[in-house]
Amino acid sequence: MRTAQESKGILLKEVPYNKVGTSCYVQLRLNEPTTALLDNRSFIGGKWIGSSAKRQFSVYDPEDNAELCYIADLGREDARKALEAAQKAFESYKTWTNRERRALIRRWADEIKASKEDLAAICTLELGKPFTESLGTVKYGTDFLDWFEGAIERQYGETIPAAKGNNRIFTIRQPQGVVAAITPWNSPVAMVTRKVGAAIAAGNTVVLKPAPETPLCAIALAKLFEKAGGPPGVLNIVTSSVERSPEIGQEFTQNDIVKHLSFTGSTAVGRHLHAEAAKKFIKTSMELGGNAPFIVFDDAKLDGAAEGVIASKFRSSGQTCVCANRIFVHKSIIQDFAKVLQEKMNSTFTFGSVWDAKVNFGPLYSEKAFTKIKAQIEDAESKGGKIVSSDAATGNHGPNFFPPTIVTGASPDMIFMKEETFGPLAFLVPFETDEEVIAMANQTNAGLASYFYTENISRLWKVAEALQSGMVGVRCGLISACEQPFGGIKDSGVGREGGKDALDEYTEIKSITVAL
Ligand SMILES: NC(=O)c1ccc[n+]([C@@H]2O[C@H](COP(=O)([O-])OP(=O)(O)OC[C@H]3O[C@@H](n4cnc5c(N)ncnc54)[C@H](O)[C@@H]3O)[C@@H](O)[C@H]2O)c1
Ligand SMILES: N[C@@H](CC=O)C(=O)O
């Protein structure tokens, strides 16, 4: 299957394009990296450049852990140049009217839509997400641009009644300047458009450092931005290896040019960057890790709750920040629920090549992720947990494939109660009272998402208000949407992305008092 060929530094993989038959597969097969969306360089000030130190790093294929391509490994000096390019671009971009910025976002979104199969294929290539799921991810990513495009002309200031009779007070919103953005591997399209879309709609310029594991989607998005007529320096991409990323972080937190640091990733790295940024009073948006509780009360409809678990727990093979992590089920229904959930899982998932349009469950993104999941499951088994795997998950689906799995008999002393799983393990924990389950659900430093299923309206309000998280899904396992304020409390972060709150985050309010 693999016929890797080297061209301009990119190793290309021949994928079974005939199964889906989109032009994208042909393009990859024809090996035309620079005419399409593939490139292995960074994008600074409107130019495609390599690292000044001439370094490269490898990206690996989650399907078989083989080397996929080499990407420019930029360092601190390169990051500084990118910030300077963004600062220069800001001087003119800040004079653009909302309507002009709106038109740019529209063109970018249209270019992405026109290349959606290509972009989805790149996402599948570097993340291992099944192609059909990648198409959904590209749609979700484009939704953010559609939303910010529509909203930006409706972002107004206020007039405020002044206490002094002779004064008149009003506010305007202004762009902040250069936004430095850092994104994780698990959502390489939507996390980019969610940050960059809001920032540039609001009149800022951006330097983005994508994750070393999945830089190709960000590069492709920059290619489409360029094609859409994005002015040089408004969007800059700085690719870097795992080893060099900390020096990019240092530049982002120590350079006076940066006015806002927008980070999505783990709580540990977010905590470090937040503290560093605070030394210079750089505003931050921190979208960090989760450990979502999912509660099934005894009055819940079991079919609906099981579908909710499947949507929340197993999306992207369990690798999203809002995935259910601890599934609490009322003691009186836990056995019935496990049965319903298992039946639904058996009829929901199709395994096989991620390029097959029917396949809806893929491998984990890396060997590292696989090892972590193995450790959580071994810990659960050693403490009395019982493993129930999906019936259809037989056969060889690659070294990083882990089947969707239910663990019954889970208990609060298991690792998953404290540590984000980030994989397809559904741990079922029994509970007896509402008070007990709310206390258990809140017994975590994370506070990103929570879910629960009940048919009781009074319980619905009480539990929704009592859960300590930025987002709550009630009878709903899929809460992610471009229009909602997305974000967490406690160690899950600071600030909101998505919806109108995101545009507020990327602007400063200026209050103007006029004495008559
Ligand atoms: N809250 C959200 O919206 C959200 C969304 C997606 C993922 N996440 C979280 O992200 C985590 C998974 O992503 P990950 O493993 O890529 O996280 P990570 O923190 O290891 O890496 C995230 C990004 O930070 C970079 N990075 C790492 N150390 C750095 C440093 N010292 N300075 C500058 N950059 C640095 C990485 O290269 C990557 O680009 C999970 O915890 C998940 O819950 C949160
Ligand atoms: N892509 C996710 C974010 C966390 O991984 C989402 O927006 O739902």
UniProtKB/TrEMBL annotation:
Superkingdom in the source lineage: Eukaryota
Record domain Aldehyde dehydrogenase: where: 48-512
GO molecular function: aldehyde dehydrogenase [NAD(P)+] activity; succinate-semialdehyde dehydrogenase (NAD+) activity
Record SUPFAM superfamilies: ALDH-like
GO biological process: carboxylic acid biosynthetic process; gamma-aminobutyric acid catabolic process
Oxidoreductase listed as a keyword: yes
EC numbers, comma separated: 1.2.1.24
Keywords: Oxidoreductase
Pfam family for this entry, one: Aldedh
Pathway the protein contributes to: Amino-acid degradation; 4-aminobutanoate degradation
Active site positions: E287
Listed Gene3D superfamilies: Aldehyde Dehydrogenase, Chain A, domain 1 (3.40.605.10), Aldehyde Dehydrogenase, Chain A, domain 2 (3.40.309.10)
Family of this protein: Belongs to the aldehyde dehydrogenase family.
Protein name, entry field: Succinate-semialdehyde dehydrogenase, mitochondrial
Taxonomic source organism: Saxophila tyrrhenica
